[in-house]
Amino acid sequence: MRLLLATGYEELDQLVSEFKDIEVTGKAIHAEQIPKLAQETKAEAVMYSETLPVSRIKGEKNVGAETNIIKVIEQLRDEHIRVIMLLNERPTGHPFLEKLINLGVFDLIMGEAVSIEEIEEVIRNPRTRKDVKHLIVEKEQVSDDKYRAKEIKIEEQKEEKKKILPKINISMPKITMPKIPFHLLAKYAPATLVQPKIIAVGSLHPGAGSSFFLYNFTRWLSKQKLSSAILESLDDQETWYHIVKREKKPHEEWMSWHESVQNGQAIMKPQYWYIGKTLFIPHKGVKKDSFTIEHARELIHLARQSPLLFVDLSHDWGDVVSQTTLRQCDEVWLVSHPNPAFLAAQEYRKQTLDHIIERIGERRLLFIGNMWGKAVNIEEIPIRPFVTIPYFESNIKAMMKGRPLSDSELDSVFINVYKRLQENNLEMEEIS
């Protein structure tokens, strides 16, 4: 089956794309583009979550838009395209359910929590009107949109399919790790919902190592079965494209997300460049002078489909993606060498850092020391890093091979960083 995904949540999309005999033709990022994208990709079915934003235009009615959803579905059904709807629970007799059923949408997956097994079952075995006719009753109901404001969660899987709660097989004391729920992302959801986290990672000076840290940290996360994404800002070099290409070449039809957003194009399946559970979003072929704030906002929103989004600011921080990230991010991590001269030269950043602290709080500004040896005189350093990474001779060999360092060299550092992150940001579950 050829299936177009319109859920707005990358983690769920990734699981569905792993189903055998299911070909994912593309991914819609807002509802307006679904009909056109379904035709262009020759999709036989669309899996559509009601939490998907209606429009890419800020200010449009992105939540509370049952009427808009119906308009999209009418276009799909006119082309005889099957629709699989992910909905929050509604009572029997609700007018919205009746409208869907009358349009021939029988594959209704409802509930505040649904399992990936149920989703797969519905995809493979289309329901009939007989299966859902009990949802229609001769009873007047007032349609409101409070149901779309709730979050839809994907229940934890069982047995061999369980992918939500990772286990770390290392000889360390028992620590807490986050329970990352499958929230179907709603761009304008209420603030009480748990949303993916944006972490800006930058270098305090050229060559400090923000890319080095992220490359190794996200790969460590991937081995713990945790998904993340690295979004590259618009610095002067296409660094991440060449870093990732050394280890794994992109799809032959790959195009950078930055370029697609700038051209008003949808993000297609060949553009999802994964190594393990890390999604890499480097820039390439972008007209930087015409990349606007609106482009940057949409790019960041798309990348937030991953539970943890790291935006590599590099050392400049002046481009539109970096500046937009610093206004939206949940935390800022800054990497530095123990060089007093380098750090003294960063006095001009003081005002920027003061603004960051004012917005997110001092606790969410993290300093990471790179190439930090025993000879460092901490009294001469104006910052106090949360963790320090020593100089590794093996890093030279790893770079020559286009590979990250081995986990054993950085386990203790990454565990400390991650433990702090979960204490600050994520729902918790204690595991061994």
Biggest beta-sheet profile? 8 strands, mixed
Counted up, domains total 2
Number of helices: 15
Structural class: alpha/beta
What order do the strands of the largest sheet run in, or round the barrel if closed? Answer: 12-13-11-14-10-15-16-17
Distance between the termini: 40 Å
Q: How much of the polypeptide forms β-strand, as a percent range?
A: 15-25%
Approximate shape: elongated
CATH superfamily of the largest domain: P-loop containing nucleotide triphosphate hydrolases
The CATH topology of the largest domain:
Rossmann fold
CATH class bucket of the largest domain: Alpha Beta
| CATH-defined architecture of the largest domain | 3-Layer(aba) Sandwich
Number of beta-strand segments: 18
Runs in which pLDDT lies below 50 for 5 or more consecutive residues are: 57-64, 161-194, 426-432
Mean pLDDT: 78
Percent in helix: 25-40%
As a whole number of angstroms, the C-alpha radius of gyration is 23 Å
